[in-house]
Amino acid sequence: MRQVLKDTSLAAVSAGFVAVLVAFTSTIALVFHAATSLGASPEQVSSWVWALGLGMGVGSIALSLWLRIPVLITWSTPGAAVIASAAQGVSLHEAVGAFMVCGGLMALSGLTGAFERLMNRIPVALAAALLAGILAKFALLAFAGAATHTLLVVLMLLSYLLGRRLWPRYAVLGVLATGVLVAWQQGLVHTDTLGWAWAQPVFVAPHWSWQAVLGMGLPLFIVTMASQAVPGVAAIRTAGYEAPVSPLMSWSGLGTLVLAPFGGYAFNLAAITAAIVLSPHAHRNPAQRYTAAVMAGLFYLLMAAAGAAVAGLLSAFPGTLVMGVAGLALLGTIGSGLATALKADSHREAALITFLVTLSGVTLWGVGSAFWGLVAGSLSLFVEHYKAPKPDGNLSP
């Protein structure tokens, strides 16, 4: 613990807070919608926040301290959309059974090493392009907010540019402070939503039905692994870290199995918010950057304890502020990802296709653009290089 405190900096605390702020404010409404679509009561919705916050907090802290690299665990955002769309005719008890099936499949993929073997076959250029495509969407939203809140976005951008010049380690913290002050002055912070209540976990016994398993459990597993696990691993590797993928997948599955009856429907590696704690903004020393993820884990635990009050607090901030902070914080990661993706001539076109398909946001059969970007890039790489002539005129095997 003494070493962790020594390694922690104000920038790490700031990065951890921003990552949690972005994670909760950007998708908490979708999680609430998923829970209420299953007929969850207000007490059960509060339990979902508790379970998700507990799983993300404990997972982020434990894994980051164990590996000494930034590992951020989050809920499955596309999974919440799957739950909401598949909720008709499914009871909350049957949904919990489907969540546990998803968790079991995730744990199995980690224990067998199948997912890690797949990740080891993905070229670094494609992984970097995939990550850049995911993050670029948030950067675009950050600047698109200028259409409705021009002064807020412009002043946040100016704060970022000045911060990068004068105090680069705390540039993102300056953006956050500027955004809050400007939003407050413009009356965009809605304090009427604020309130306080401790979370109370509510146990829901699982029931299993083949309809819920096939209609919700399997799609939840597929979209979580395709849309979050792949880019999550890509984010860690693009940042220059090596992590044992199989244990991370196993933990995600086991965490889901334990907390599913309380509302922890699916956990996995973060990608978008992970880029914030993986960025040099979080800590100038890569070896001490794990503390940003530890700080994020502590903030997750605080939000888990707050329960239903979290929604009121986070909804007080305007969406433009949240997206602005996220987008500006991710600029450096997007730039380095594109530089890595487009560096080698042999992978450049495939990486570009991966980036563009991912950035498009296309969804097919309930699977998001991150998966299809990787498929398109891999197909391009295969067509371009399969049995292509080598420089000496021979054909590759």
UniProtKB/TrEMBL annotation:
Gene Ontology molecular function: benzoate transmembrane transporter activity
Record keyword Cell cycle present: no
Alphabetized InterPro entries for the sequence: Benzoate_Transporter
Transmembrane segments: 12-35, 47-67, 72-90, 96-115, 122-140, 146-163, 170-188, 257-278, 290-314, 321-342, 362-383
One cellular component term from this protein's GO annotations in UniProt: plasma membrane
Claim: DNA repair is one of the keywords in the record: no
UniProt keywords, alphabetically: Membrane, Transmembrane, Transmembrane helix
UniProt name for this protein: Benzoate transporter BenE
Organism: Aquabacterium lacunae
Origin organism lineage: Bacteria, Pseudomonadati, Pseudomonadota, Betaproteobacteria, Burkholderiales
Protein encoded by which gene: benE
